[in-house]
Structure formats: structure tokens, C-alpha cells
């Protein structure tokens, strides 16, 4: 048996890919996963290039692993993920001790690549985009707890001017609907109660059905909601561009679909949205939210924001803040714009200094944090459906679970209800969690 250590950077899709890598390797019967680098025969790095200095971070990490390899030259180092796809062979120019480079679409080929390197002691690379392959080879992932990620589509055709994803993940490709339904049903049998459907643009989903027809996202949601045992459905990430009325309709009649939606708007200024090539306006986004509120009056919305995009004036930023207040977003992931090599926005003139960008980020996050807190306060006295996950991290006498809107609730209750849904009344609101009473 050989030991494999996998390090993962980045989004949920990368986390998902890493668990898939682990499954492919374990399935050969020759490898075991270890959490200790010192024990590893094979080191795998699954990289991310969405923001920050991805290349520097990569070579820094490879430098550390070089020390391990100099002590034990038989160690095999494999680099995968978005930076590997973008940089390819360039990586070994600076890090000759790397043995394998594999792309986001070649995960299933890794066991074979490793055994070739073991045999021939020769560098291997595969960063090709044979997109259908990946879903053809997918295996059910190992799950922890009572929630599971299920990949339904991958890639993106939108080419927002700031984003590397279309270049690192390739075109949108949907997994056949029956494969998804089969996986969800088998997860339900294993005790999973909540499903999080994963993809770069889940609402662009168009999977083929068993009889050659096309299943759209709204239909997929309805089909999954009919699976016994699954009582909560989420998805990440959706895009305002294809958030069509048929998806909004699902909120009317599918209570298993959570009253919480992450719908990234990125900016509150139409000028900036146009420069970002987001292909929608603030008015269009507002219209979607209006319809959603009609379908599901208690729905809460979260978003991603980019501050300091090239050309963002003080006035544009003010419009973003006003928009945040108007929509009353519950939460956000917000970032300072980071120029990504090869994207159209990297050619735009970036005249805002870092201090100003940091200030804007601070103001934005402060505004959202206040809203998050006021949304939490509104929950005081209400009864929430909580998926009970385990013994509380703060108080071992209590158990905890998550609400539909992603709040952690601690409360006294029997251990037997771990893994089930419980009705809990909220009686205290703290910054990072809530306290409740089991009903
Ligand atoms: N498909 C999603 C976005 C996925 S990328 C959508 O349509 O919104 C995840 C988030 O990373 C984006 O929403 C954006 O806020 C952020 N991001 C992407 N590229 C970035 C960049 N170059 N600089 C800063 N943030 C970026
Ligand atoms: Fe990126 Fe825009 Fe697609 S943010 S993932 S190119 S929708």
C-alpha cells in the first residue's frame, strides 16, 4: 500500500474534485489517503486560480515539497486543478521536481499516470479537455455528515471579463439527469438528508434524459424533490442570466428547496456590470428578486461582489452599497478585484489604488455584516427546521444543526436526533450562531 496526501485550494468544485481523486486512487486497491505529508509516497496539489497570486502560491508550496522529496527521492508530486490547466508545462520550468501535471478534466487518468511514472520515471502531463469523459467516470463521493455535494454540470460559457473559469474548466457540460437522480437516491439510502447541487452555473443545466430528451434545471429540481429521504435541496452557484421563470416557479410548489438563494450580482452599477460583461442589468436582477419574493415571500438572498473593478468610480461603488441595502442581502462573499492573466479585464486600465480598494471592501463588508445580524435578529422567537449535525462545538452538553438560511443553532436535545430534522425555537441571537429550544 502507498500513501497519498491531497492538498486542496479553492472552491467547492475543487473540494469535490479532490474527493473524486481520492475515490479513483482508493478504488485501485493500491493507495490509502493520509493527512500527513511526512507519511506520503504521493503528494497531490489541487490548485485554484480564481484570485490572488496563484502562481506564487503554487511555487511556494512546491518549494516546501521539494525539501520532502530531497529526503525521499521516490516521492511523486502531482499538480492538478485550474493553475495546472492554465500553466501546463510552464510549471516544470520552475519546478523540475514535479512528476505529473493533470487538468480539471483528467482526474480519472491520475492512477494510470502515477503508475506510469513509477514504472518509467518520466514526467507526465494531461491537461486536455475531453469534457464528456469526466462525468462518464464519476464515482459516488464519500460523505461526511448528512449533507452531500452532487456535481450536476461543469464549466462556463459566459466569459465575464474578469474571470478565468471558462479557460480553466472549459465549456458548460451537463451530467445526464438519470445519473444524478441515481446518485441522489443512493445518497438518501446512506442517510444523507440534504443535497447541494454543484456547478459553475447550475441554472444553465441541460442534461440528457434516458430517452434522449433534455432535462432543464427546473425539472431536475422537481425530480430530486420527489426522492424519499432527501428533505432539503440547495444549489451553488447560479447566475442571474439564466434564472428563468420556470426556476422561480419551483419555489412556489417545492418546499424542499430552501428559502435561501445565492445569486451573485457582483456590482450595483450598470456601467460596471457592462464592463464586466455580465449581460444583465440591475433592473433585470431586481425583477428576478421581485418574482422570487412573490413565489417565496420569506426567501433570503446572498451574493458575490467584486470591488475596485477597473473604472469603478466612487459613484459606482455608492450604487453598489445602495443596491445592497435595497435588496437587503443576507450575506456575501466579497473580493477585491484581482487581475487574471489572459482575461479581457486584465487589459483594462486599473487606476484605483489598493488603499481605496481595501476601504471599499471594508465598507461593503461592514454593511452586509449589519444586514446579516438584522436578518438573524428577525429569527428571534421563530421556529426553525434544523438539520441536526452533531455535538455542539462550544458546549458538549448541547447538540447543533443548521437552518435553511445557513445559521448554526445550538440547543439541548437527545443524541438520537443527530442526522434528523428537528423543530427548534430560536431564543438567543449571537454574531456567529443562534441558541434555541427543541420543540
Ligand atoms: N458563476 C458565478 C461565479 C463563480 S466565480 C457567477 O456567475 O457569479 C466565484 C466568485 O469569485 C465570483 O462570483 C466573483 O465574485 C469572484 N471572482 C471571480 N474572478 C475574480 C477576480 N478576477 N477578482 C476578484 N474576484 C473574482
Ligand atoms: Fe466566471 Fe462569469 Fe462564468 S464569473 S464562472 S465567467 S458566469
TrEMBL record:
This is tRNA-2-methylthio-N(6)-dimethylallyladenosine synthase. Its main location: cytoplasm. Residues 2-119 form the MTTase N-terminal domain. InterPro entries: Elp3/MiaA/NifB-like_rSAM, Methylthiotransferase, Methylthiotransferase_CS, Methylthiotransferase_N, Methylthiotransferase_N_sf, MiaB_methiolase, rSAM, rSAM_horseshoe. SUPFAM superfamilies: Radical SAM enzymes. GO terms for cellular component: cytosol. The keyword 4Fe-4S applies. The gene is miaB. [4Fe-4S] cluster 1 binds at residues 11, 48, 82. Its EC number is 2.8.4.3. Its cofactor is [4Fe-4S] cluster. Catalyzes the methylthiolation of N6-(dimethylallyl)adenosine (i(6)A), leading to the formation of 2-methylthio-N6-(dimethylallyl)adenosine (ms(2)i(6)A) at position 37 in tRNAs that read codons beginning with uridine. NCBIfam families: miaB-methiolase, MiaB/RimO family radical SAM methylthiotransferase. Residues 377-439 form the TRAM domain. Belongs to the methylthiotransferase family. MiaB subfamily. Binds 2 [4Fe-4S] clusters. One cluster is coordinated with 3 cysteines and an exchangeable S-adenosyl-L-methionine. Keywords: 4Fe-4S, Cytoplasm, Iron, Iron-sulfur, Metal-binding, S-adenosyl-L-methionine, Transferase, tRNA processing. It is an enzyme of class 2 (transferase).
Amino acid at each position: 500500500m502507498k500513501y497519498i496526501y491531497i492538498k486542496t485550494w479553492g472552491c467547492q468544485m475543487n473540494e469535490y474534485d479532490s474527493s473524486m481523486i481520492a475515490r479513483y486512487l482508493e478504488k485501485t486497491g493500491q493507495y490509502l489517503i493520509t493527512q500527513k505529508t511526512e507519511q506520503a509516497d504521493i503528494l497531490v496539489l489541487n490548485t485554484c486560480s480564481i484570485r490572488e497570486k496563484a502562481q506564487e502560491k503554487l511555487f511556494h508550496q512546491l518549494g516546501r515539497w521539494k525539501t520532502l522529496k530531497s529526503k525521499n527521492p521516490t516521492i511523486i508530486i502531482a499538480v492538478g486543478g485550474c493553475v495546472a490547466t492554465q500553466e501546463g508545462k510552464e510549471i516544470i520550468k520552475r519546478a523540475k521536481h514535479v512528476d505529473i501535471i493533470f487538468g480539471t478534466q483528467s482526474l480519472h487518468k491520475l492512477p494510470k499516470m502515477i503508475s506510469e511514472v513509477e514504472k518509467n520515471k518520466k514526467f507526465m502531463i494531461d491537461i486536455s479537455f475531453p469534457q464528456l469523459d469526466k462525468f462518464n467516470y464519476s464515482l459516488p463521493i464519500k460523505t461526511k455528515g448528512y449533507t452531500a455535494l452532487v456535481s450536476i454540470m461543469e464549466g462556463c460559457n459566459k466569459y465575464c471579463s474578469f474571470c478565468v473559469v471558462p479557460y480553466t474548466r472549459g465549456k458548460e457540460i451537463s451530467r445526464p439527469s438519470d445519473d444524478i437522480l441515481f446518485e441522489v437516491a443512493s445518497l438518501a439510502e446512506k442517510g444523507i438528508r440534504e443535497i447541494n447541487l454543484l456547478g459553475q452555473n447550475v441554472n444553465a443545466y441541460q442534461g440528457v434524459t434516458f430517452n434522449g430528451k433534455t432535462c432543464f434545471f427546473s425539472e431536475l429540481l422537481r425530480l430530486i424533490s420527489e426522492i424519499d429521504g432527501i428533505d432539503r435541496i440547495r444549489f451553488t452557484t447560479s447566475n442571474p442570466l439564466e434564472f428563468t421563470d420556470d426556476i422561480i416557479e419551483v419555489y412556489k410548489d417545492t418546499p424542499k428547496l430552501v428559502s435561501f438563494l445565492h445569486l451573485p450580482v457582483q456590482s450595483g452599477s450598470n456601467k460596471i456590470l457592462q464592463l464586466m460583461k455580465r449581460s444583465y442589468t440591475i433592473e433585470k436582477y431586481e425583477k428576478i428578486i421581485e418574482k422570487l419574493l412573490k413565489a417565496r415571500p420569506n426567501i433570503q438572498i446572498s451574493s458575490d461582489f467584486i470591488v475596485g473593478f477597473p473604472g469603478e468610480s466612487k459613484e459606482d461603488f455608492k450604487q453598489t452599497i445602495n443596491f445592497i441595502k435595497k435588496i437587503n442581502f443576507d450575506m456575501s462573499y466579497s473580493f477585491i478585484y484581482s487581475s487574471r492573466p489572459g482575461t479581457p479585464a486584465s487589459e483594462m486600465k486599473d487606476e484605483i489604488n489598493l488603499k481605496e480598494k481595501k476601504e471599499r471592501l471594508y465598507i461593503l463588508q461592514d454593511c452586509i455584516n449589519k444586514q446579516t445580524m438584522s436578518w438573524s435578529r428577525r429569527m428571534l422567537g421563530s421556529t426553525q427546521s434544523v438539520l441536526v449535525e452533531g455535538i455542539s462545538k462550544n458546549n458538549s452538553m448541547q447538540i447543533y444543526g443548521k437552518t435553511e438560511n445557513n445559521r448554526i443553532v445550538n440547543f439541548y436535545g437527545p443524541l438520537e436526533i443527530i442526522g434528523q430534522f428537528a423543530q427548534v425555537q430560536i431564543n438567543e441571537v449571537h454574531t456567529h450562531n443562534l441558541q434555541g429550544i427543541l420543540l
